Amino acid sequence: MGFLSPPRRFLFGPGPTQIEPRVYEAMAKPVVGYLDPFFFQVNEEVRAGLQQVFGTQNDFTLAISGTGSAGMETAVSNFVDPGTKFLVFSAGYFAERIAEMGRRHGATVIRFEKPWGDVFTEAEAREAIERERPQVAAFVHAETSTGALQPPQAISRPAHEAGALVIGDCVTSLGAAPIRVDESGIDMAFSCTQKGLSCPPGLSPFTVSPRAMERLQARKNPNRVWYLDLKLLSEYYGVQHRYHHTAPVSSFYALREGLAAILDEGVEKRFERHARVHAEFVRRVEAMGLRMHVATPSHRIPNLNTVCVPEGVDDALVRRALLADHGIEIAGGFGPLAGKIFRIGMMGPLATPAGLDQFFGAFEKCLVTASAPAVRM
Question: Omega into 21 within 30° of 0, i.e. cis?
């Protein structure tokens, strides 16, 4: 094998996104053992940083060894037993993934659906919850497949009134948009490292509320997924440090450094920066005569923009031209939105005025070259 030389890319997609240079430097640090005191020191720093970006005082906050889907399955497998009545609010691809995991774990899954890109009102959620009386409800805070941002309390308020626990998928929002887990009433929130946290993929930040911990401790049957058993993981990452698995030490270094970069900037200032860049992104998109897929501004994810593909434009040609000619990666839609939207991330180091200029300078050129002749005129 020759020398490894990856191409230079600018990751303007939904994830993985651009990585902070200091994170790469952290990953090159010497590896220690998975029971080394230094590793557990790093883990404590990660826990404290995650509490701040999640907006929680939950003591049980950690990073699961695995990507965001591992976090999703951690939430489902620990809190959804066979026969559990599990209500999933579905308006996109990743809500459907939660429902599928629930089915595989033997839950009685009820899907409350809306079109991809819509969000649920509190009145709609309350009606569904009062009708179904679930033990657990789940929703996606920032639906990566559509660009829609779901207000958490619209679901958590009626769910708690009915005695249900609430799972929140925060994969796309963590680190770039406010979640405020404690205020939002989310009992189990999970995320990933390769989106708003500007780190490589490989870990899934996770947090559990005290009321959910009480439910977990009262559970009589062990989790069928040994690797994701939160009781066992609590013994590894807690004071006992009882061996559970070989944690990916370098990934923890990366997450620790990514969180340090966020805290150095200031969590609220980071959220404000992403919101400003998003507003300017929308302004420039609309100035081009294009429109956003999510019509209501307050229901748009600030760090992941979904732009409708104009008539006469082949979205795949645009994406290929961006990558080949400018080294820029964005994503298209899938499922019912295949060929209909561009999914464009403005996150972390690229969520800046310079990042906007770089992207739009290339995007406008590629749109023209990929348009039908009638459109170009």
Answer: no
Q: What is the CATH number of the domain that holds 79?
A: 3.40.640.10
Q: Is residue 329 situated within a structural domain?
A: yes
Phi-psi domain of 28 (left: phi exceeds 0; alpha: psi -120 through 50; beta: other): alpha
Interval 297-329: pLDDT, tens: 999 999 999 999 999 999 999 999 999 999 999
Domain interval for residue 253: 21-263
303 and 189 belong to one structural domain: no
Model pLDDT for residues 32-49, shown as the tens digit of each residue? 999 999 999 999 999 999
Residue 242 confidence (pLDDT): 96
Band of pLDDT at residue 369, cut at 50, 70 and 90: confident
- 11 in a domain, yes or no? no
35 in the same domain as 134: yes
pLDDT digits (tens, 9 = 90+) for 200-227: 999 999 999 999 999 999 999 999 999 9
pTM for the whole structure = 0.96
- Residue 371: per-residue pLDDT: 75
Pick the last residue of a domain from 229, 263, 297: 263
* CA distances (Å), origin 64, targets 146, 190, 201: 26, 9, 12
Beta-carbon contacts of residue 335 (< 8 Å; ≥ 6 apart): 93, 116, 145
Q: Are 159 and 208 part of one and the same domain?
A: yes
Kindly tell me if the per-residue pLDDT of 376 is higher than 60: no
* 5 within a domain of the structure (yes/no): no
317 and 215 in a common domain: no
- Number of neighbouring beta carbons within 10 Å of residue 10: 20
Q: What are the DSSP calls for 270-326, one per residue?
A: HHHHHHHHHHHHHHHHHHTT--BSS-SGGGB-TTEEEEEPPTTB-HHHHHHHHHHHH
The reply to whether 294 and 160 lie within a common domain is no
Q: Please answer whether residues 196 and 178 qualify as being in contact, where contact means their C-beta atoms are separated by less than 8 angstroms.
A: no
Nearest to 250 by CA among 202, 186, 303, 180: 202
Q: Which two tokens stand for residue 108?
A: 């009685």
Q: Supply φ then ψ for residue 163, to 5 degrees.
A: 80, 15
